[in-house]
Give the backbone structure.
Amino acid sequence: MSLRRLTIVVLVSVCSFVAYATAQKNELSGLVGRTFVSDQVITGSTVSDNKLRFGNGLSLEVNYARHILNGDLFSLALEVPIVFNPDEDLHAALPSRIPESYRSFFVTPAARLNVFPAAAVSPWVSFGGGFGHFSNSATLLFGGHNPGPTGTTTGVLQAGVGLDVSLFHNFSLRGEARDFWSGTPQLDVTTRKSREHNLLVGGGVVWHF
């Protein structure tokens, strides 16, 4: 390669790197939503209603993201969604040592791809993985102190879709649905599932800086 061509390649590479570095942006978002967990069949149950049912726990999400690639058609960001569900109620007809509720906590670093990031409305998809932790309540569903396991830590896969809508200046609105596919919490009852879907549906505000 001639010196002239090498110089051109170096200049183009430097300009591309500068443009890439300048285009990097941060995001900090806060969202509120509900976590939905499907019913699970209790194995060995002798009652007609043999399902373990979950409430729709009010959940909070804090998310930090860093854009690493920006373009007119799409942008790529690395994000860290942190989701806390402080009170997931449990219901079952079978008397047992099932706790009355549990708390869940998910941290799943992910890659997020936005389409038309500079437009007023930008859809996106996200995929990643991390860990989750379930903490059982100290009280049993049918009364009394919970003598069983109080916590479960599990690996988690996360997949999400959402929509960002420009609001004003450096703020936008976000609506999303994220599925946290995790192991099941230890609830002193055996079901037919070893993993479960924790579907978070929520919305909130994003600050771009």
In short: Residues 25-208 form a domain with the Porin fold (CATH 2.40.160.20). Confidence is low (pLDDT under 50) at residues 9-23. The first strand starts at residue 26 and ends at 36.
